[in-house]
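$ ./design --mode recover --in tokens.txt
reading tokens...
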């Protein structure tokens, strides 16, 4: 693996095509200053999610795993002015930092952060008839990824795009004997995705500023 080269190429791509504005750089600063894990999507991946949301003509987006709102901002910026994004976060500290970042980006009226365990909030969203969502981004804890995917399907319509981050984990998904709970969670998810007849799906490997990983992309049939 040539991580340095991948990082330099990401800088090259970002220099050409992915200009972060003050709201995005301030979000990155807030992560460092609040001692929050630096596990947001990269700038280039954020723009990729933004393009996918535009392709979906997304009016309603659901995100599972907010952290500091970095991916949230990229996604919400693809919404129409009457669009809505609901993002689910377990940690109140992360949610508080995210709320400030989202407000600073001028997206406070489009974005709703729901604090709580995602599995509980997802069931609540169904009861509220909050769906169907046009795009769903799964990026929270990895063990229940398969359950998040099942909920995503229940909250979808034909044509909904479901994206799941971190499904390759530097190739560790190739190890059938892995004892890493995150790896086991995404292995189980990838297998469930492959078996599911309700979606057309693939996985794109990613390298760059972040470690080698992958995003699963599934469209609901
Ligand atoms: N999507 C973000 C990164 C999310 S990191 C970005 O790219 O900018 C994963 C987040 O999921 C963390 O903030 C973590 O606190 C949250 N999380 C972990 N377990 C959770 C759960 N059970 N329910 C909801 N959120 C959870
Ligand atoms: C981790 C989680 C993520 O969502 C990510 O993009 C990278 C790492 C983690 O929990 O290690
Ligand atoms: Mg992630």
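writing sequence...
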């Amino acid at each position: 693996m040539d991580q340095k080269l991948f990082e330099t190429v990401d800088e090259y791509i970002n220099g050409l095509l992915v200009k972060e504005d003050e709201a995005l750089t301030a979000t990155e600063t807030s992560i460092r200053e609040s001692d929050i894990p630096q596990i947001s999507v990269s700038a280039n991946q954020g723009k990729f999610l933004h393009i996918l949301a535009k392709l979906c003509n997304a009016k309603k987006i659901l995100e599972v795993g907010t952290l500091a709102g970095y991916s949230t901002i990229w996604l919400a910026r693809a919404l129409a002015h009457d669009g809505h994004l609901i993002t689910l976060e377990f940690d109140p500290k992360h949610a508080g930092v995210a709320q400030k970042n989202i407000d600073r980006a001028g997206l406070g009226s489009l974005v709703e952060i729901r604090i709580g365990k995602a599995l509980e909030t997802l069931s609540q969203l169904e009861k509220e008839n909050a769906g169907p969502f046009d795009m769903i981004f799964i990026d929270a804890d990895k063990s229940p990824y398969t359950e998040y995917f099942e909920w995503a399907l229940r909250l979808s319509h034909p044509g909904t795009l479901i994206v799941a981050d971190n499904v390759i984990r530097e190739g560790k998904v190739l190890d059938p004997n892995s004892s890493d709970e995150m790896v086991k969670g995404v292995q189980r998810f990838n297998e469930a995705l492959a078996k599911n007849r309700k979606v057309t799906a693939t996985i794109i490997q990613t390298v760059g500023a972040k470690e080698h990983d992958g995003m699963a992309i599934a469209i609901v049939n």
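exit 0
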